[in-house]
Amino acid sequence: MAIMYALKSSDNEIFEVEQKVIEQSETIKKMIEDGAATGEIPLQVSSKTLAKVLEWCKQRQHKTVENENDDNKGKRKKERDEDDDIKEWENKFSDELKADKDVLFDLLLASNYLDLPALLSFLCQLVADMVAGKMPEEIRRMFNIENDFTPEEEKAITAEHGWAFQP
Amino acid sequence: MVDGSFDIIRKRRIDDVDRISALPESILQHIMSFLPFRDVVRTSVLSKTWEKAWHTFPDIEFDEKLFGQDLRNLLLLGFDELDSGHKRFDQMKRKLLNYWEKVLQSRRWEMTSLRKFTLKTERLSDLEFVHQCIRYAVENNVKVLKLEISLEKDVFYNLPQMVLCLKSITVLKLRGFKLESPGSNVKLSSLRELYLSDVDADAHVVENLVGGCPLIEFLSIEFCGGFKSLKLFGLSKLSIIKVQSNSELERMTINAPNARSMAVIGPDILSDINIATCKNLKFLCLCTASVVDGWLSNLIPGLPLLEGLHLGLCYELESIKISSSSLKRLRISRCMNLVEVKFETPNLTKFGYEGEIISFSSGVLSLLETDFYICSSNIDNEWYVKFVELITKFHGFSKVLNLQSDSGQIAIVPSALRQILPPPLSGAKHLNFAINMPFKSFPIAQVLDGLLWMSPHVQTVSIKFGQDFKTFRFQFSYKEHLLCGEEIKLPVSCWKDCIKKVEIEIISEKMELIETFNKVEMITEADSKWYAFEDELLLEKIDKLVSQSHWLESY
Prior knowledge:
B: 19-stranded mixed β-sheet, 31% helix, globular, F-box protein (chain B), SKP1-like protein (chain A)
């Protein structure tokens, strides 16, 4: 029987999760090891975000378990299929986040707080892909970044690193 | 609160609030670490928050190539022989170096910690600046250090000793340096990856350097000079090794009991290779003229975990036996004097061969995929007979058989032979054919005709042109064996009569565009007279379609 833990979101929703799934979070793992996790584990993460985090963790868990159970025969073909499946899942996951940036940033903060390095890197890569190759004005528009430089200050920076602002 | 009103508030929040800049600086810099350096620098102008994140960003990359147009202008000036050209070249070089120095200076000021430092220069290599960079990297306990410089021909810069005693370094890449006999011992106690390229050093120095990296996992030594022999011992963590084109290397001994992957590529004078103690190799690539039959036949059975083997340009090989129960992938390319290969490889799943037609003997193989790139200059009837024999055999061994050739002529088996030889690929559902150097007036219909003879009633044929041209994917649907009958009898030349419809898809890999031609439907209504008449047009149309879309759109 898998050991289950109850996670409590900041809006008091309870999530029952297998130990193996939530131990990907270094923060929760430490809480469990320290014995601080008797009963419900309270987390500073909203239920909406936590559901998304767990969706990720379950997918990762699924992947590692299947790889362990594999015997060598026919593994390569199977791996390729699985890699395709994971890619497809990740693409869908990414598309949802790109469409709703609010969720993306909630998830970034949650992965930082829960210490989920793989998710954090995945999300940072996702944002980097959105930013790469764009000019500053486009990036500001995309993320509502307020330009708090005076025109002179901005001009000075652009002039200093002139090479980087050539199209 | 009513659900609807909550949504409206939420929506406004998304639209107006700058959430990205509210992220902790560590996350912003994590995002920046996935960006090309040009984009990293661009973020500095977004807002004051981002400017601050840039000032403390721990990865620095000085690559003259990043300067694009500025550099191109500089190079044009550099080639100018006039004095004024040289002067302007020096001025611009000074300007770029000043910029880099300023970046370093401001980071010193901010006490920014350093994680990665890269300096890549060719035209702009400046000894004083290189030295300044090295000092900066060492003072700041850099973890990943990449120094790739290029000075005048045969002039090397001595790497300062302090780099080789830096405990923080985990990755070190050096190009264009001279390494001299170290005064004190090398102590790179954290180093995991070492890349040496175009480095001048004697054998003692190289061995001492590698020996001073007890945790080394990855080693690459390429295009280096100054050593005739290379002896590396006792590297228990070393996992991946690449030794390539080191101009003077004659003898090589590597004892890395846990190495997983090794590539030894050239030079031709390398005649003594001792790697038999690397018993845990899974992947081995040998591309060097000195590999001989007996040596190879002895080596392979001693590598019980070997899964992948590539033999390329091994001119001394003539007749080899590959005996391995672990081997899954084998590739043999351009071993010009090879005449015979014997397989004892029950678990082989992928086989690739590039060269003339030679003899392959084996027990039963069950391959998933076979690639044949047949390069022959003299193609006559005798050759075709051998060719058909070869692919018949591997068609029986392999689920997928891919054919590749320079001109495509190999597919056009003469009609006299088609009368007497059985089709080599009968029963295949898909055929992949690549033509690497197609002629301008390429007889696509003839090739297609040849392929359809080889594989009667094949469902799809892909013909790929060149490296970055196009793939034509023909999908055939057939009438129910109308003229061929249930069994395929000789001569099988009736495919044209059996085809109901051809769909042609043109995949342009360069553009990553997929254009699907609206079904080139040759026959719409079942009418026997119509067939014969349309058949000739079918080939013509395919020829026309292919030549137009291939050449006109490519140029």
